[in-house]
Specification:
The complex is a heterotrimer of chains A (about 130), B (about 110) and C (about 250). By secondary structure, chain B is an all-alpha fold. Chain B contains 4 helices and no strands. In chain C, strand 3 and strand 4 form a beta hairpin. The chains are: A mainly alpha (about 130), B mainly alpha (about 110), C alpha+beta (about 250). Chains in contact: A-B, A-C, B-C. At the A-C interface, helix 1 and helix 3 of A face strand 6, helix 5, helix 8 and helix 9 of C.
Chain lengths: ~130, ~110, ~250
Amino acid sequence: MSEVRAYRRTLSTWWWVRKPSYFLFVMRELSSIFVAWFVLYLLLLIAAVGRGDAAYQDFLDFAAHPVVVVVNVVALAFVVLHTVTWFSLTPKAMAARIGGRPVPPAAVIASQYVGLAVVSAFVVWLVSR
Amino acid sequence: MTKRRVEPFVWLMFSGGGVLAAVFLPVLAFLFALAYPLGWLSPPDHDHLSAVLGHPLTVLFLLGFFVLLLVHSAHRFRYTLYDGLQIKARRATAVLCYGAAAVGALAAVVLLV
Amino acid sequence: MTEPQQSIGLRVSRYRPETDDAPGWQEYDVPLRDEWTVLDALNHVKNEVDPTLSFRWSCRMGICGSCGMNVDGEPRLTCGTFLVDHLPGPVRVEPLANFHVARDLVIDMTDFMEKLPRVKPWIIRDEEMSVDDGEYLQTPEELDAYKQFSMCINCMLCYAACPVYGLDPDFIGPAAIALAERYDLDSRDHGARERLDVLIEHEGVWGCTFVGECTKVCPKHVDPAGAIQRYKLKAAKESVKAVLLPRGAR
């Protein structure tokens, strides 16, 4: 078979636009950019708090600027995509068993949302006052 | 003895960062990027926020939180560059992504401590 | 009042290495029968219309794994893909994606044939039992642990669906890893460490970004994506143990 010229097909750069599941996958992966953005944003917030009340208020004003709001809305949408896809993938990545019986995926997913609710409530409680 | 490879450890950090981001970022982003600046909820007063941030447990948590999130982002973005843009310069991409993560981590350390 | 469709078009990728520089298309019309699959249509073409068309097939019932091709862009077993599900046509039939094309719809599977033995897909034992001692016994629970992964028919649809394999041919791929897991989970096997040594490499499990398409297209419901993520966790656990525990203990 060595004298046969096998044809090599290459994948287009736009391979991921062709199928909805591929597109969602790439969007999910791009959420990583917005995770990094929020790390930067939160660090800036922490730095402002460190500089005093005036700097803190200035930061909140900066955050209220329409461009920043738009960026953060988009970023939050991607973060939510990350959360939803991460939770739904976890049961597929683990063969969870409790007492020898397999745990149904829905239970794994539900317990993660419970965790999300608990954490969110805790953060709100911690920060308000 | 298992072969020594760095990939399993990077993957563990990626996974940890993914869990932390999934569970903590929605509420943090909603509060501090939308609700407080836009006045949907009244922002915490400066002294209280400063006290919370200064607490050693908060510092410890945020340190781990930011580092793991940055590793998660860098790891995922690196593979997105490989798969999405088909960038072949593997070593350069890895250095750039994890390097950026390290810079960010350093900044976090400096700021928090 | 339109007449019901009597025939359906097939748009088939042709490639003759001795004369063509690149694949091209050829159109055929085949009778539209309710029970006909794409494979039936291809065999009709070869028997009645154009004997030069080359393609692989064997069992025509979804167990041999020979007839994998891309039908309307999706990796499918052509023996299980019905013409009536692709109305009004024409049905686009291409060689299985991500593989080199040898001729027409026949792909070069050398890469997969080289990768599969690397994961040692056979029972590895520390000590072989003698035949006189009888069979290895296994409980139903022990069988269930690996049964799903043993359903793989090596049809390579998962490789065709995997964008990582399409972009990086070094990636060992979904089926190979699923088969490694099949043997790791088998109670008769002691070879997990050897397979981990192969899969812990960069071209092993780490290239996978959990797109999940492999599991979607698998005709035997094997779930290679799940197997790969579990393997990553396994590799991580073993690596942590190797760091934390002294050399002697394992």
